């Protein structure tokens, strides 16, 4: 397991690991930087997975600008976001040494390191791409990479406005110049999250510190839908906009209206909360959220059974 260095990516990998281990007798190595070890090991310990999951240290080249405590998105200053992504690419040799030593039967990798699949292939190891993203975001970003714009995107209701598109465009452009070979450009889609900051006077506080303990680890969007809770959408950057539009189109979310300057006002936030939580006019949203919750719970076990079986077959095949 080789996720990107953000909690919003690491914990979906851990949750998937937990569910796979219920179904099959895997032994899982999870590769990350030491700054993330405490949170990862807490999850492993709390879920009694110490016999089945082992944490493996990934080495990034040290630099004055990006010391080891910034080898994660948690508490990372926003101006260092792209610096961390670029530094992550220096881990190729470390990861190559890891898989040479451990000789895993399968590698599961995230979107920020397409080179992981090439390294796996060079050693005859099957590789599976796993992203915490939803299908709407993946399809939109892929179309953007291939076509250059979203004019031909078949789901126009999900297309972003100019002000919404900027941070995603900046990221994709950065990726194409700093990470991808020509062969990669048409085949990989990327996401960067966990970088949002709240300004409190002169002090910045990360989302991870601002929210209740464990909130991000559980993935608040998925958790809301899973338990039938309608979503009040206030997207700020990157793929948040697409997620919000997709849920609104599905009838399970209401996006807060911005003012002409693109800011959220307290009156509009209160209006959205009142409709979604209290008013009779919001019953349709609440009902739709309950319906989606039932669908997710019905499909979860079957889909995870199929995934576990497919991954198990790949592991056995690599031993042949």
From TrEMBL:
Gene Ontology MF terms in the entry: UDP-glycosyltransferase activity
Any GO BP: carbohydrate derivative metabolic process
Record protein name field: Flavanone 7-O-glucoside 2''-O-beta-L-rhamnosyltransferase
Record organism: Sesamum calycinum
